[in-house]
Amino acid sequence: MAADPKATPSGLQTGQRPGDEADPGTPGTGEALCPDCDGTGKQHGRACPTCGGTGKVVQGIGGA
After folding, report:
1. Contacts for 53 with CB less than 8 Å, ≥ 6 apart
2. Per-residue pLDDT tens digits of the chain, which is 64 residues long
3. First vs last Cα of the chain: how many Å apart?
4. Partner of 39 for a Cys bridge, out of 8, 35, 51, 55, CB 3.0 to 4.6 A?
5. H-helix or E-strand containing 42?
6. C-alpha span between 46 and 15 (Å, rounded)
7. 13-16 long-range Cβ contacts below 8 angstroms, 24+ apart
């Protein structure tokens, strides 16, 4: 399988945060509150590693 040209060294797609299921703006997705920090953007006094401190993640919608 060929490497994805948009992937970063961490394996994430360009514009993705660790908790994102897809790139922002991907059809069939939407922003949701980060399940790990409950939308605060912080865990243990630091930026949440799941959402990168934004409090939001991109998730699939519609149960598809």
Report:
1. 41, 42, 47
2. 344 444 444 455 567 888 888 888 889 999 999 999 999 999 999 999 999 999 999 999 876 5
3. 25
4. 55
5. strand 42-43
6. 21
7. 16/58
Please state the pTM of the whole predicted model.
Answer: 0.66
Do the strands 42-43 and 29-33 form a parallel or antiparallel pair, or are they unpaired?
A: unpaired
Q: How many residues does the chain have?
A: 64
CB burial of 31-63 (b: ≥16 within 10 Å; e: otherwise) equals: ebebeebeeebebeeeebebbbbbbbbbbeeee
CA distance to 40, 41, 64, per residue, from 44 (Å): 11, 10, 34
